[in-house]
Each structure stands twice: as structure tokens, then as C-alpha cells.
Design brief:
Largest sheet: 2 strands, antiparallel
Strand order of the largest sheet: 1-2
Number of helices: 6
CATH class: Mainly Alpha
Shape: elongated
CATH architecture: Orthogonal Bundle
CATH superfamily: Winged helix-like DNA-binding domain superfamily/Winged helix DNA-binding domain
Strand content: 5-15%
Distance between the termini: 22 Å
GO molecular function, one term: DNA-binding transcription factor activity
Structural class: mainly alpha
InterPro entries: HTH_MarR-typ, MarR/SlyA-like, WH-like_DNA-bd_sf, WH_DNA-bd_sf
Organism: Sphingobium indicum (strain DSM 16412 / CCM 7286 / MTCC 6364 / B90A)
Pfam family, one: MarR_2
CATH topology: Arc Repressor Mutant, subunit A
GO biological process, one term: response to stress
Amino acid sequence: MVVRAKDALLADEDYRALAAFRHEIRRFQAFSEAHAGMLGLTPQQHQALLAIRAANANQATVGYIAERLVLKAHSATGLVDRLDALGLIVREVSPDDRRRSLLRLTAKAYDILASLSTMHREEIRRLRPLLLEIFDKLD
């Protein structure tokens, strides 16, 4: 659906708020990428570890990673293979379906993820008032 400018009814302040929101998202993304890189991870590897850690029991599969990271199945498989080669995950046969592999974090991955997540939580806490101010402008 294409919305014409005359139908959108956006004020200049709406555009400023949207631009500020996009800017803060990009800043957070750059923050995240830099900190993951300092610990030897790519942004996708960090995001995959976080998805595995946050998954419910018996949920973390290659398909789940593909869904959570918005990847094609073969790309998720390659990502999981690299995490396995780095010693950050292990594959276990699913007790429910022996054709499926469940992904589990190693102790090394838990340590890395805990460090990154602590930094990210602090950055999100720092950004919260700014984001709330932006959201208020969009109401």
C-alpha cells in the first residue's frame, strides 16, 4: 500500500521524531557491533547467541535462528556451523524428534554473552529516556 503525502498527515515534528528514532537505532547498532567485535564476534554471531540463550527449552534450532535473525535456512546453517567451530555452541539431538538438532551454548559462549548483555543493558538504560521522549513526540 502506498500512502500519498497528502494522506499521511505528518507534521514537521513527526519527521524530526522519526529521524531521531532512526538515528538512535543506528547509534545503538554501531555500539553493539563495536562491542561484539571487541570480543571476537560478528554482529550476527552475537545475535544468534542471544537468540539461543533467550529461547525456550527445545526451541533453539537452525530454523529458529533463521527466523529470529531473518535469514534464509542455508545462511543460518552456515552461521551455526561457524559458532560450532568457534566452540560457542553444541548441537544435541532433540528428544522429541531425532531428526532435529537443538543448539546449546557452551560455557565460553555464556561468558561472552553475559559480558555483552551487561554492556547492552546499560546502553539501553541510558537510551531509555531519550527514546521515550521520541515516542512521546510521535503520539
